[in-house]
Amino acid sequence: MEFKQRHLLGIQHLDVSDILTVLDTAESLSEISTREVKKVPTLRGKTIVNLFFEPSTRTRSSFELAAKRLSADIINFSQQTSSVVKGESLKDTVLNFEAMNPDALVIRHSCSGAPHFVSTFCRSHVINAGDGSHEHPTQALLDAFTIRQAKKSFRDLRVVIVGDILHSRVARSNVFLLSKLGAQITLVGPPSLLPEEFKNFGATISHSLDESLAGADVIMMLRIQTERQKANFFPSIREYRNLYCLTEKRFQLANKDAIIMHPGPINRGVEISSEMADSVKSVILKQVENGIAIRMAILYLLLGGRERETAD
Ligand code: CP
């Protein structure tokens, strides 16, 4: 198994072998989180900086837990309590952390391309934890890991991704990843949140959730990203809910063994009913659990856990 990347900036430029290496490595590392003592010495002596310029519940804490389970040291930066509020730039912030000699920088930023920019001048490995509406590679990898657990194979799997596609880095990374693995993807949302250009990514486009659910194996619901919307993209939440909320009645249109996914945070009663979010068909919290194994795999593959174990 070889991971041929120096950084993890996105899914678009990964090949199938890189993707499968991450999924297989995560599978073998996931066992560590089930032990009484959830820790191995693999990344002892390595330092990771969690640089979050945007809020996060899942991604930040699972990178932290992943690092700790591999015995790396990790520090957390959040924009609100940093000198960014005094005007310090992204470049200067990163250069100051680089001066402390870390091994990896995990970056979330509201600007698309921020981790790519950072990777042009820093020595550490850079991991994209979500950049604007561009990509969220570790989310797509943990989604693929969760789908593989439930469905075994991606070949011709019918995946329906529903919601604010225009602003969703999760949708983009998932379209890149799942299409590389052979799934058939349908993107669903109102025309204002699902431009025709998305056809160029190799997905089918639909504005009708009811029509798209027929034969679906995986239903991935997304929230409306009001923080990225610079205009009103639909008349009202009520109208959006009527057309795009995943309800028990709508779920009956999908395949019997379909699974329900959501990257979180969920807005109950808007894009998904509480009944569906909490149903036995939902793997939403499984996705969160799997996020730790995927992030352990990425840290392990980038920071040379294999060489280090051999050297020990
Ligand atoms: N899925 C996801 O990125 O969640 P957070 O914003 O809480 O990290």
What does this structure look like?
This protein is α/β, with parallel strands linked by helices and 312 residues long. It has two domains: 16-136 and 289-311, Rossmann fold (3-Layer(aba) Sandwich), CATH 3.40.50.1370; 137-287, Aspartate/ornithine carbamoyltransferase (Rossmann fold, 3-Layer(aba) Sandwich), CATH 3.40.50. Helix content is 37%, strand content 14%. The chain has helices at residues 16-29, 58-69, 90-98, 114-119, 137-151, 169-180, 209-212, 237-244, 248-251, 274-277, 284-302, 305-311, and strands at residues 47-52, 73-78, 104-109, 125-131, 158-162, 184-188, 204-206, 218-221, 259-261. The radius of gyration is 19 Å and the shape is globular. The model is unreliable at 308-312 (pLDDT under 50). Bound molecules: phosphoric acid mono(formamide)ester. Residues 56-59, 130, 139, 263-265 line the site of phosphoric acid mono(formamide)ester.
